[in-house]
Each structure stands twice: as structure tokens, then as C-alpha cells.
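User: Can you model how iron/sulfur cluster sits in this protein?
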Amino acid sequence: MAELIYDETGRLLFTEEMRREYTILVPMMLPVHMTFLVKILREQGFRVELLTSTSPAITDLGLQSVHNDTCYPALLVIGQMMEALESGKYDMDKVALIITQTGGGCRASNYIHLLRKALQKRGWSHIPVISFNLAGMEKNPGFRFSPKVYLEMLGIVVYADLIMNLANQTRPYELRAGDADAMIERWTQRLLEQKLSVRRLSRTLAAITADFAAIPVRREPKVTVGVVGEIYIKYAALGNNNLEQLLADEGCEVVVPGLLDFVIFMGDHHLVDTRRYRIKWKKGLVSALIKVIFSFFQRRLIRAIRQVPSYRVPADFGIIKRLAGDYVSDGNKMGEGWLLTGEIVELIHAGIGNIICTQPFGCLPNHIVGKGMIRAIRGDHPDANIVCVDYDPGATRTNQENRIKLMLSVARERLTEKSA
Ligand code: SF4
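Assistant: Here's the modeled complex, given as C-alpha cells:
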């Protein structure tokens, strides 16, 4: 075991020595995005392993590790890590964990402390926990990167968002089952082998789009369902009981907003704070930079998709923000904040009226900007077919699926009427 070094607050640090010897366990959220992230970390000399288990034991281990009032995403992520540590696969003296910290006012900034408490409860307080964040919180001597690597890490969001978007628009219509998934695999491998250069960004985005567009498809009318909500529950199959697969099995096309919007949102809301609370403009400099860089990336992504007329082009961040402004203030920044409202309205404007709003039970911020906005949105868009589904350890899968299927039956009726 490496020497254990603590900072002045008593936090166990991830040191240079650990960097060379320890295996870092990374919880899964978005398969394509996380595969790229792992690649970059490995290139930087880290031993990294992605946790992909979705075993039912995870919820039980989560419940044993944290209070049952804890946000469901935290319960699952911590449960998944505990399952990995208990598996006996890892040398308990040479393993570390990584978890995100949003740096915002919501509880997601504090999951890391719950994780450390869970480790302590099991007698594993010698396992270091690394915070992955954009807000400069909890620095570790063994987990530092050059600005170029940070940029590369953030740049993978663009490629992964594009691949996810195109695969979702292609898979339900492919003539040969598995073509879209094979294309994901091919491009993931290709991008893993080359340097993720920002200079080649536009060319690479165009090449990915052209390859997906070349997959033979039959574009017949299908029920299209938008999935929005709390970031972990919306994306992670473990969090939403494999919602995307359920919708695919029901013959639907799934539309999931990309991660780029959330990254720009993080930069944007700090700027809003700087303006509203008259914080020194210098404090908003990094956020302004994040917003500018990622808005640029997003415009490139949109331009690439626009080249193929049969693809639906996602709206840019500015449009989503304007649409949300009709319902909530841009001061709403806890959880997904006004972005969740904006994503719902944007989907409706794009003609996707069937929407599932996924949220952890007891997630107050997202109930305000998600479920809480539905009535007002329906007032303006009476045809909107929206269902809010809560996820937590006590919610039964059957109940969730029944609510979703009820929404789908309305969607199918409307599709038949429209086709007729
Ligand atoms: S958004 Fe909801 S689930 Fe996420 S940290 Fe905040 S309260 Fe918890």
C-alpha cells in the first residue's frame, strides 16, 4: 500500500505514488462518453476500470451504505462501488474511487462525503476518493492534468454526443439489425486509436455523420419519445431500469438530449450568478470560457448533422434557454435547473410531443423544473403527451412501465390518426 497522506482538513489524498500503482474504479453513466474518458485517463498513465454491473444487489448495497432519504443516483453509484469492492476482484490496498462533484448548491456536490462515510462504515477509510469536477474542488497531487488534457476530456463530449444522437436516429429504422451499434463500435475504436484533436473536429464530425447516414434504413412512421430528467437517471440504464431498451422493444425512436447542453448550462449558470449577485467578473472567467468553447463545439455538431436532411437537428443552447425563459427564471439552477424545462419545450417545438420526464423520487429541484412545469407547458401545448416517472429503491418497475405504456398507447393512437 502507498503511504497515506492527508490534507489539512483530514482528507485522504490521491498521491503521485498511487497514480502509478492504484486501480481507479469509475461508475458508469453514458457508455460512449465514459469509454472515451477511460481512454484518456489510461493514456495519462492511470489504471482505470469502468463499473458496468447493473445487478439488483447494487440497490441493497446502496441502502446499506447511505440513508434511504439520499438521492437515488448517489445510492446507486455508491452501491455499485461497494459491489465492486466486495467482489474480491481488486487489491483493497491498491484501489481508488472516482466520483463527480457538480460544485453547485444541490446535493450532488456532497455525494463524495457520503461515499467516504460508506467506506468508513465498512472499515475501508484507507481507500482514496477522487473528485471529478470543473469547479476546482478537492485537488489531489496524483490527479492533475495539463489544460490540453482537460480540453481533450471535455472535447470527447462532442464526439460522444454526436454518436449517441445519430445512433438513436438510425437504430429504429435500420434494415439490418445491429448496423447502428456496429457503427458506434467502429467509430469508438477509431477515435480511441487517434488523438482527439480539436483541429480535426469539423472533419471528424462530418465523417461520423456521413457513415451513419450510409446505413441502409427504411424511414417508416414510428412513435418518437423524448427522454429528459435528472442527469444520472436520464442516461444511466442502472438508474432508469433500462428505459431506452424498453422503448426500443416497444418499437419507438428515442430522443435523448446530449450532455453538451448540461456542460454549457454549468458554465452559463455561474455567469448568471455573477450578474445577479454582482460577483466579481473575474470569478466568472472560467465559466465564460467553458460556455464559449462548448457553444462553439455545439455549433460544429449541429452543422455536421444538418448535412443529412433525414436527420433531426438538435436545437442549440441559446434556443433552449429562450424557450425555458417563458416558464422559469434563469436563476433556477439547482439540479438540472431551467435546462430541464427548456428541454421539454424544445422537444415539443421539434414535433416530439411524447415525453418521459425521469426523476429520482424526492428530488425537489427537478420536481419543480420538471413535473412542476408540466401543467403550464400543457396549457400552451394541449397535445403534449408527457409522463413523469419517479425512480427510487421502493418504486416498482411494473408501475413505472405501466405508466410509460399508457403514455405510449396515447402516442400510438395519435400516430395512427396522423398517418390516416
Ligand atoms: S438534482 Fe435531485 S437527485 Fe440530483 S443532487 Fe439534486 S436533489 Fe439529488
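A couple of observations from the model: Strands lie at 23-27, 47-51, 95-100, 129-132, 224-229, 253-255, 354-360, 385-391. The pocket of iron/sulfur cluster is lined by residues 71, 73, 106-108, 230, 335, 360, 363-366 (CB under 6 Å).
User: Helpful, thanks.
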